[in-house]
Amino acid sequence: MTLEEYHSLHKTPVPGGYLYTKAGARGLADPAYELLAQHLEPHGQKALDLNPGIGMASYALRQHGLQVQAIETSRASLRCLEASFGATVEVSRGLPWETEPDSTDLVVLVLPANRGTRYVELSLLGAARALRMGGRLWIAGSRDKGFEHYFRLAQELLGFGLLVKRDGPLRVAVLEKEKPAPELPAVWQSFACDLQGQTLHFAYLPGVFSGGHIDPGSAMLLRELPDQPGHVLDIGGGYGALSRPLVGRALSLTLLEDDWPSVLSARQNLGEKATVLHSDVDEALTPSQTFTTIVTNPPFHVGGLVVLETAIAFIEAAYARLERGGKFYLVANRFLPYEPLLEARFATVHTLAVDSHKVLLAHKSD
Ligand SMILES: C[S@@+](CC[C@H](N)C(=O)[O-])C[C@H]1O[C@@H](n2cnc3c(N)ncnc32)[C@H](O)[C@@H]1O
């Protein structure tokens, strides 16, 4: 897949029309979205979609004549939503718990179970707080990913709840707000760790990759980096685990990240010392920007599904964004077949370390 193909939008048919999709967007191929869109019923006038993905539930709500606001964290999904809805849905980047209290009649939420319990709990709290008294929350998810637990939690927050649909492991339920929602608790968390002789402190928001500890693969990659890496690009930088130790060693640091809570976390950890961009792969860079060293620990899950297309786009972007003679460091699970992809592009490819993960170094020719 070329970068151009990765970034292109495709029309996907939905009952009564189509939505735009693209590689890397959340909510693609997740049947919970479809089931929720089929079964939700209108209530009141204003609706809020707190995990829209490519917008299937928002689309159904529009068809029911409701005024819809969709809050999304993924840059790739935001692109799809903006293309599909134009001005007909108020699409905004944001955190699902930062909702305006008592502002809406209906909330829809496909449970973001793959983002961890704390993230789902806060999303439910955001939904409960946004609803007016008597407003309704529709949730969808899988029994295999904690649906029963989250349904009980939603009942504790709101009140009456009814299971509307079972389809294999998938569930859809509706709840009614019968009591005031609790205040939002403190959401930021932090941890300290020793990396290459220094103690570093990291802050992070719920839902980010490897919150609370440095991923063992990322720690392996850090051990292989040169003392003076020059101008560095960190693709899929998360909360800054790879970039933070390079502060003071790199001539400049640029971090690209698709996920908004991760972007906010990286900005908190890197401050003025790096440029942190909300970016689907390299789309937020200007066409001429190139770097001496590129580092990545690429994702291979999107919304809980194993997909390599985003990782392939990371490799394509790394090749395009490296200066001549530049170096690309990639860490991955041992079973992932990145070597042939790198060899197809780069002049040389070496395995620098193998343990729980493998660290690969690819050179761009001079
Ligand atoms: C395996 S994590 C690594 C995070 C961080 N570099 C570390 O080492 O802890 C992969 C990161 O890629 C981000 N990501 C996923 N898809 C992306 C995309 N299309 N563009 C940019 N970043 C993306 C994820 O949100 C996640 O933070």
UniProtKB/TrEMBL annotation:
Residues 29-150, 201-355 form the Methyltransferase small domain. It comes from the Bacteria. InterPro entries: DNA_methylase_N6_adenine_CS, rRNA_Ade_Mease_Trfase_CS, RsmC/RlmG, SAM-dependent_MTases_sf, Small_mtfrase_dom. It comes from Meiothermus hypogaeus. GO terms for molecular function: 16S rRNA (guanine(1207)-N(2))-methyltransferase activity. Its EC number is 2.1.1.172. Keywords: Cytoplasm, Methyltransferase, rRNA processing, Transferase. This is Ribosomal RNA small subunit methyltransferase C.
